[in-house]
């Protein structure tokens, strides 16, 4: 008997070709980590000046899908995500509220960890905080000064983009568009303003500062990520991710800083996810279409349905968030959960059905092939729902046996390692509910239909749907179709 074939379970085959679109080369490339079997991943984390919004979570969920897929493909993944707890915005907001920087940012650091847990995002291995890595940043700036890539002006230290000939390679800026020599103090600016950028900002009255060998001051945003990524992942590592808005200036500057300091390639594959818009428009507080995760949870949104929605658009496409799309995502996810409940809670006759084996093999192959092709989530999800359709048909026809169920449970567990959208499988209903189901069964056998119907209705109100089949009565946990107030 073969219901789980060893060949099919060999999804840990590292030779399977994975391709990603590398922003640096502008092409799809075969993914090969530096060390066989191990991926070192850096993702730009939150700047903790406010609650993270759904655009931020689009990026974090894309990165989570990427990481989970690499784990599923058999790689060990070492993941570092920084916490930017000192920059222009955190300082501005903490001052406005009359709090110290640490008091102010701690609230949003806590909120960030709560939010990613609710969205079932796997935690990183390390969450370095910028304020705890000032010596590493100072050291990196000292190297840049010694090598002539940085210079001091009026107490601040700047990076000289003219000294780094490949500046602009990631953001595809032509050399003639660069404005070397002119200086910028701000952490964020547009491509049209590719100037010398600040590495160390001299102390300003009323701002937090550190006494260092560079003089009193604080780091610029970009040096934070160079120093912290190389500390934990080495001078050259495999993957660096963020949203497209990080490409310039942030990631461009990270490359310039790191490669000038080490003389080595910094990152081998750069992956960026595209923007999230809301109802076809740019999300902004002034338009009233700005949502944090907390805003949506307050409206009764299922966080895993939101996760499902955010991961189901390919990461290199603009994601248009609408409440209608959220309702559809909720319904799709419910189909997956119904299927889970069906196979987890029913009993089936002995035996197996070869057809189920074939359906699983095909779904497994298509799921993996889809994600291997630059995380093509549409192909992967269509493999999942196509299996569900086929198996549901066989379920209706009574052609599913207990060994098929074992294989299906195994498969569901596998795909959810990547998708992360299923709750733990329901083991049993509370005893009072089970007693009510038995009571209704007895009423039906005794042809007391009035009582049977009343109990059926009561159970429905408690979220339990009963289905009378030839093999007896089956139950199903249902969640009502949701509409969201807008
Ligand atoms: Zn960063």
Question: Could you please describe the fold and organization of this structure?
Answer:
By secondary structure, the protein is an alpha/beta fold. The chain has 3 domains: 19-273, HUPs (Rossmann fold), CATH 3.40.50; 293-419, Isoleucyl-tRNA Synthetase, Domain 1, CATH 1.10.730; 431-477, no CATH class. It is built from 14 helices and 16 strands. Helix 6 links the parallel strand 10 (237-243) and strand 11 (267-273). Residues 1-15 have low confidence and may be disordered. Residues 44, 82, 225, 250 line the site of zinc ion (ZN). The site of zinc ion has 4 residues, from loops.
Q: What order do the helices and strands follow?
A: EEEHEHHHEEEEEHEHEEEHHEHHHHHHEE
Mean pLDDT over all positions? 91
Major β-sheet profile: 5 strands, mixed
The CATH superfamily of the largest domain bears the name: HUPs
Helix content: 40-55%
Q: Total strand count, please?
A: 16
CATH class of the largest domain: Alpha Beta
Poorly predicted tracts of residues: 1-15
The CATH architecture name of the largest domain reads 3-Layer(aba) Sandwich
The best one-word shape is elongated
Radius of gyration: 27 Å
| Count of separate structural domains | 3
Structural class category = alpha/beta
